[in-house]
């Protein structure tokens, strides 16, 4: 029987499976099935039984289910595989998804957890629970599945979970991921190449303590700059910038000069801004005095990352006449980098939908070594700001922030307290 011929069986089983209330004790994943029974059913020869077991474990989101579920990531049934991927994700989310209710991370009539939505939500959507290498290895195998739906879902799930480990575990993950993602750059399916580029940018985003970027992967990303589809080119630029791959500077510069303006030019300049090579300084100075607000923002960010304090006055002069909230926020970012300026205005933007994501990214970048500058934000009356500060300090990975984060675990707002718990666990892991 083929995988597709099992589809009807699996869908029937989905409607018949009992629902669960959420994380529960180990000896009871439902009113009638124990954890041990559900885990054993994952290897049943009956697809109905396997599907039901995966659903039960997905809804329970019990941590000990992560490794047993690996067996079903490469199940003969596509539907079992997709449910297994969703189950793995639910285990590691900061807030578990009740698949019986609609939320931003579920899709479809039966509220399946959507791997792309989890990936897009970013690292802040995940808790700090360690992801076993067995799970990541299983997802790598599923990334090569014959079903495009399964392969892309596994790829997104890998991108979401593989970005979480720190220290020695991170080095092991990067060794696993580099050849897998480099290989997918040559996939015949354009969607698979696009997702692989996005995942490479997430997983290999440069962090303190990372080894020199993998050349095989970096060079594969450079080759992707030749993609005919501009969306793929931009994804390759973004990944190279996140990776800070210096061998890409020449190619990115040529593309920036070729496009001159528009989204592709901005993406090339932004990648160069993250790599921050001295050879690119003249490009940033030119755009600092240009009229395009989007390119000016990138130039300000780049000159801030250069660490050249002499640029602070130039930036202040260049942005003084520009009526743009994004340019103003970038100038605050530069002031913090180059002149130890306050972070308060940037933190305030966490409460504004328009600039939230940009402010969040700036603060994660600024946080290492600057934990005391977050004290005011950690005590702000708005719980959204307090929660955001906890997420930022956890993702920034500076253990010095524990002195600020640990007291936040007793915050009166449950969401803030959960964010602080997750941040504290991340910071302890980064020690």
Can you describe this structure?
- The protein has 431 residues and is mostly helical.
- The protein has 24 helices and two strands.
- Strands 1-2 form a two-stranded antiparallel sheet.
- It is globular.
- The termini are far apart.
User: Which radius of gyration do the C-alpha atoms yield?
Assistant: 23 Å
Number of helices: 24
Average residue pLDDT: 89
Content-based structural category: mainly alpha
Task: Give unreliable regions as ranges.
Answer: 1-28
Q: Estimate what percentage of residues fall within beta strands.
A: under 5%
Number of strands: 2
Termini gap: 50 Å
Overall 3D form = globular
Please estimate the helix content: 55-70%
In short:
This protein has 431 residues and is an all-alpha fold. The protein has 24 helices and two strands.
Give a topology summary.
Layout: H1 7-16, H2 35-41, H3 47-60, H4 66-69, H5 78-92, E1 106-107, E2 112-113, H6 115-121, H7 133-142, H8 148-162, H9 167-184, H10 190-203, H11 215-224, H12 230-243, H13 249-259, H14 262-275, H15 281-288, H16 293-305, H17 311-319, H18 325-339, H19 344-348, H20 356-366, H21 375-378, H22 383-396, H23 402-408, H24 414-429
Antiparallel strand pairs: 1-2
Helix pairs in contact: 1-3, 2-3, 3-5, 5-8, 6-8, 7-8, 7-9, 8-10, 9-10, 9-11, 10-12, 11-12, 12-14, 13-14, 14-16, 15-16, 16-17, 16-18, 17-18, 18-20, 20-22, 22-24, 23-24
């Amino acid at each position: 029987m083929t995988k597709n011929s099992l589809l009807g069986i699996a869908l029937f089983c989905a409607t018949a499976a009992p629902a669960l209330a959420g994380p529960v004790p180990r000896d009871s994943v439902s009113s009638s099935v124990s954890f041990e029974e559900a885990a054993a059913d994952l290897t049943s020869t009956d697809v109905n039984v396997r599907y039901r077991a995966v659903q039960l474990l997905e809804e329970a989101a019990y941590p000990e289910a992560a490794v047993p579920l690996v067996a079903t990531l490469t199940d003969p049934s596509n539907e079992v595989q997709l449910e297994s991927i969703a189950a793995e994700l639910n285990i590691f989310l900061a807030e578990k998804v009740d698949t019986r209710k609609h939320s931003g991370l579920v899709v479809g009539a039966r509220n399946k957890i959507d791997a792309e939505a989890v990936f897009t939500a970013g690292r802040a959507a995940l808790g700090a629970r360690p992801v076993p290498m067995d799970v990541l290895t299983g997802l790598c195998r599923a990334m090569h599945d014959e079903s495009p739906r399964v392969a892309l879902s596994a790829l997104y799930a890998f991108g979401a979970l593989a970005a979480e480990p720190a220290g020695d575990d991170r080095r092991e993950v990067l060794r696993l991921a580099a050849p897998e993602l480099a290989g997918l750059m040559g996939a015949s399916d354009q969607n698979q190449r696009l997702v692989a580029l996005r995942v490479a940018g997430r997983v290999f985003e440069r962090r303190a303590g990372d080894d020199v970027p993998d050349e095989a992967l970096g060079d594969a990303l450079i080759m992707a700059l030749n993609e005919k589809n501009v969306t793929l080119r931009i994804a390759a630029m973004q990944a190279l910038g996140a990776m800070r791959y210096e061998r890409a500077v020449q190619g990115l510069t040529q593309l920036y000069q070729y496009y001159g303006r528009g989204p592709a030019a901005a993406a090339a300049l932004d990648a160069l801004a993250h790599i921050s090579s001295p050879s690119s300084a003249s490009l940033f100075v030119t755009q600092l005095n240009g009229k395009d607000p989007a390119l000016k923002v990138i130039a300000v960010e780049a000159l801030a990352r250069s660490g050249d304090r002499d640029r602070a006055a130039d930036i202040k002069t260049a942005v003084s006449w520009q009526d743009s909230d994004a340019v103003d926020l970038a100038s605050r970012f530069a002031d913090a980098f180059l002149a130890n300026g306050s972070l308060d205005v940037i933190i305030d933007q966490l409460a504004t939908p328009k600039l939230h994501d940009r402010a969040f990214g700036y603060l994660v970048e600024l946080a290492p070594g600057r934990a005391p500058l977050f004290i005011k934000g950690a005590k702000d009356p708005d719980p959204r700001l307090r929660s955001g500060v906890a997420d930022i300090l956890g993702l920034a990975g500076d253990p010095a922030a524990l002195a600020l984060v640990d007291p936040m675990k007793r915050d009166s707002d449950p969401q803030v307290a959960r964010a602080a718990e997750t941040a504290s666990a991340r910071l302890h892991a980064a020690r």
